[in-house]
Amino acid sequence: MRCFISVALVTLSTTQPVWASLGDTVSTDVPQYVLEYAPLVWLHSEDTYMPSDIQQQLDHTRPMVNWTSISGVPSPLTLNNLDALNNLGNESVYLTSLEGIEASPEPAWFRGIGPDPEGRTVNGTASAIIVVHRDDTTVDAFYFYFYAFNKGGKVLGLEFGDHIGDWEHNMIRFASGKPDAIWYSQHARGQAFTYNAAEKKGKRPYAYSARGTHANYAIEGTHDHTIPGLNLPAGFLMDYTDRGVLWDPVLNAYIYTYNTTTGVFQAANSNDPVGWLNLNGKWGDDQPPNEPEIFGEAKNVAGPNGPKFKHLDRDTVCPSKPCIVLPVRTFGKEVPS
Ligand SMILES: *[C@@H]1O[C@H](CO)[C@@H](O)[C@H](O)[C@H]1NC(C)=O
Ligand SMILES: *[C@@H]1O[C@H](CO)[C@@H](O)[C@H](O)[C@H]1NC(C)=O
Ligand SMILES: *[C@@H]1O[C@H](CO)[C@@H](O)[C@H](O)[C@H]1NC(C)=O
Ligand SMILES: *[C@@H]1O[C@H](CO)[C@@H](O)[C@H](O)[C@H]1NC(C)=O
């Protein structure tokens, strides 16, 4: 049994003033290196869909099953009681936008919070860090990024893959306190690199968040990606990353541990809400009925489920096998611009 005595973050490195400014406590189950090595995220210079406050998603949506409001929903719905929805529809619950995904003008809350010059999402928490102790030496740190809206790509001038609610993540596997490898989520898949291969600012790897889709890449430039389940020609569908605005997710993050045996999330401090992590429903609207599809894909698609569905219990740094950990960041399907 681990102990959860809180310790103040006082012995912080002077080269990382970031930690000193956290002004919070973390449990001994959240090693300081999880914060010291946390990725920094470059948001695209032309992306209008910024990281978003997680609670805000609840304020602008109502839970529905099959496009019908459900009764018995706690009021107000908060990140502490969100898992009450599991008894009111479970996986079929969709946090459905009050305005609708096609609302015009577009609801301002889709746009999230542009980070300030220090990288903060002021007055909003758009990140959750989840620490998994796999064994005595292996620690997996998941860095989750939340965006209110995902703008999909275009194929032959047709837009598809828009959805409300967007969960992305990096994961760093630590071995005896040293970062070993890093995972970048990209659509239904992603890429893994050695920690050494990652581009970094000091100890902290950069993730490049693609314009609109927020897929995470290890380098800036143009990236082709295939649609899951479809075998389109390479270069058919592109993601774009650049050094637009630097987001430091750690500055506004909730921090947790997750026990893979019990499936229990525990907040690292007494303030961070826990219930939302147990939600089995989806973070945005369902796919609208009769949405026309092209190549099996629709313009508006269903919102995603949350962090607990992103394979928090992993054998390797990748969510599935085979896991290829690339030793050079320019390997893989990325194309320099
Ligand atoms: C997970 O919970 C089990 C059962 O309470 C406990 O034995 C185990 O030590 C916990 N694991 C971690 C990593 O805390
Ligand atoms: C969803 O609602 C539609 C329209 O009310 C209805 O025809 C359909 O049977 C419902 N689907 C389910 C799975 O309940
Ligand atoms: C609710 O959803 C979860 C997650 O998908 C699933 O494991 C569980 O079996 C579901 N519960 C019921 C009662 O259907
Ligand atoms: C943040 O919240 C405070 C208190 O409500 C408010 O005074 C301030 O203007 C807000 N800042 C931003 C950037 O929204």
Q: Topology, pairings included?
A:
Blueprint (H helix, E strand, L loop, with lengths): L5 E3 L8 H4 L4 E3 L4 H5 L3 E4 L10 H6 L1 E5 L2 E2 L23 E5 L29 E7 L4 E13 L2 E3 L2 E3 L2 E13 L2 E9 L2 E6 L5 E2 L2 E6 L6 E2 L3 E4 L13 E4 L3 E3 L5 E7 L4 E4 L25 E2 L2 E2 L26 E2 L7 E2 L2
Parallel strand pairs: 3-15, 7-20, 13-24
Antiparallel strand pairs: 1-2, 3-19, 4-5, 4-6, 7-8, 8-11, 9-10, 11-12, 12-13, 14-15, 15-16, 17-18, 17-25, 20-21, 22-23
The chain binds 2-acetamido-2-deoxy-beta-D-glucopyranose (4 copies).
What's a quick, concise take on this entry?
This protein is mainly beta and 337 residues long. It has three helices and 25 strands. Strands 21-20-7-8-11-12-13-24 form an eight-stranded mixed sheet, with no helix packed on it. Strands 3, 14, 15, 16 and 19 form a five-stranded mixed sheet that branches.
Describe the model.
This protein is mostly beta strands and 337 residues long. It has one domain (7-326). The protein is 4% helix and 34% strand. The protein is built from three helices and 25 strands. It has helices spanning 17-20, 32-36, 54-59, and strands at residues 6-8, 25-27, 40-43, 61-65, 68-69, 93-97, 127-133, 138-150, 153-155, 158-160, 163-175, 178-186, 189-194, 200-201, 204-209, 216-217, 221-224, 238-241, 245-247, 253-259, 264-267, 293-294, 297-298, 325-326, 334-335. The strands form seven sheets. Strands 21-20-7-8-11-12-13-24 form an eight-stranded mixed beta sheet, with no helix packed on it. The termini are far apart. The relative contact order is 0.21. It binds 2-acetamido-2-deoxy-beta-D-glucopyranose (4 copies). This is Vacuolar protein sorting-associated protein 62. InterPro entries: Vps62. It comes from Penicillium bovifimosum. Keywords: Signal. Residues 1-20 form the signal peptide.
